[in-house]
Design a protein that fits this description.
Blueprint: E1 3-10, H1 15-28, E2 32-39, E3 47-55, E4 68-73, H2 76-82, E5 86-95, H3 102-105, H4 115-122, E6 124-128, H5 130-137, H6 143-153, H7 159-169, H8 175-186
Parallel strand pairs: 1-4, 4-5, 5-6
Antiparallel strand pairs: 1-3, 2-3
């Protein structure tokens, strides 16, 4: 049975590292994996979307609306934008951080204040203050690995496999912080 994970965030949040950790972990479990990175204005704080599909045999990485088993959202507005991709019975894990998009920064729009309420009413959602946990781990940029930890807890993949993958995927100078971030997310 194939699984589809959609990772959404804003440029600079580490969505690509998160997809590498997920992809490498499921490969180590013997699954066929396809990953597709869809970059928006990633260098300017724009939307970044990564699709990860894994299972016995995967033919395409693309996730259509209503197909995602899990949406890992690094930011509230990105969770809201991605909501229609979630399948019935799927789950969204959302970092409660709000990062103003360019129209909000320029004053052309206001950041929507009803996102949490809307998500709670429409989908199975878990809100996580991943920024606080990342800071507790030692670096605010470890939000991505905190969220991978939260998601990992709901998979059948053993904790040790995730740790092995983090050790081989994350650069050595950031390893300690990321292991701590993963643990904080996993044990949430």
């Amino acid at each position: 049975m194939n699984k589809s994970v959609m990772i959404v965030g804003v440029g600079g949040q580490g969505t690509l590292l998160a997809s590498r950790i997920l992809g490498n972990t499921v490969i180590s479990e013997g699954f066929d994996v396809k990953v597709s990175e869809v970059h928006g204005m990633s260098q300017r704080g724009g939307s970044v979307v990564t699709y990860v599909k894994y299972g016995d045999k995967v033919f395409s990485p693309i996730i259509e609306k209503g197909e995602a088993d899990i949406i890992l959202a690094f930011e509230m507005l990105e969770a809201y934008r991605a909501m229609t991709y979630l399948k019935k019975g799927g789950k969204i894990i959302v970092n409660t951080q709000e990062i103003d998009p360019m129209p909000v920064i320029t004053g052309a729009m206001e950041y929507p204040q009803t996102i949490e309420k809307t998500l709670s009413e429409k989908v199975d959602v878990q809100f996580v203050d991943a920024l606080s946990l990342a800071e507790k781990a030692g670096n605010f940029k470890a939000v991505n690995v905190v969220l991978i930890g939260v998601m990992a807890k709901s998979t059948d993949i053993p904790y040790e496999k995730w740790i092995e993958t983090i050790k081989t995927t994350v650069p050595p100078k950031f390893l300690e912080v990321n292991l701590k971030a993963f643990e904080l997310g996993y044990n949430l």
